[in-house]
Amino acid sequence: MNFFNKLKQQIIIVLIKAVQRFGKHRVTIMGNSFDISANVFNPKYYYTSAYMAQNINVAPDDVVLDMGTGSGVQAVTAARTALKVVAIDINPEAVRHAEINAEANGLKDRITVMEGDLFSPLRKEPVFSVILFTPPYLEGLPRSDFEHSLFDPGKALIKRFFSEAQSYLRQDGYIQMLYSSLADHEKALTIIRGLGWHCELMSSQETFSESFSIYKIKRNKIEP
Questions:
Q1: Measuring CA to CA, which residue among 60, 63, 69 is closest to residue 87?
Q2: Which of 30, 52, 115, 132 is most buried as measured by Cβ atoms within 10 A of its Cβ?
């Protein structure tokens, strides 16, 4: 990572922590209302949450996994259409708020929220047609529940997620992942491809500080 990206990351970390402390704890994203706390990632003041939600395209028979759900923005968005959504987060406070937000948006019957580290709460079955994933991408060591939403040192989480995901994704399913230019996304894509996945760019968007890309990621086909 070059010096300027490291500097940008440090500035972003300071800004995020200020927003978490002083930002509103009831916000609206795409017409849906979300309650959060200082320890749950605030979806209102960062581009990623709304951008990812705007690009969700699921069918009425889809079973969706929202990995790292936070306040539940992607789970609620997907559940407006999908048959069922499972939402997972390692942060117990995020799990509590995601459950509150699912009920407040009238989707409690379609959204199941679980606490756990990546796929740990699930049976190893390929039941999901779509997995939504916005991994943390800043360099640093998580020292609190909240900081798991920020830091992925050495891209260890990316490696672990894509090593395990094939056991939970249907053969014709895909992963929708958002990643940032600040975090050496080409390195992340190299890791993902090396684990047997094909990455297709769905959408990209520039902001004043960085660019974001959304990828559709599928397992490589094995020739007979």
A1: 69
A2: 132
pTM value > 0.85: yes
Reported confidence tier of residue 98, pLDDT bands at 50, 70, 90: very high
Does pLDDT of 79 surpass 80? yes
| Tally of CA atoms within 13 A in the half-sphere of 183 that contains its CB | 25
The whole-number pLDDT of residue 180 equals: 87
> What is the residue-wise DSSP string for 152-176?
-GGGHHHHHHHHHGGGTEEEEEEEE
C-alpha span between 94 and 191 (Å, rounded): 28
**C-alpha distances in Å from residue 32, one per residue of 28, 62, 160, 212, 223:** 5, 21, 32, 23, 44
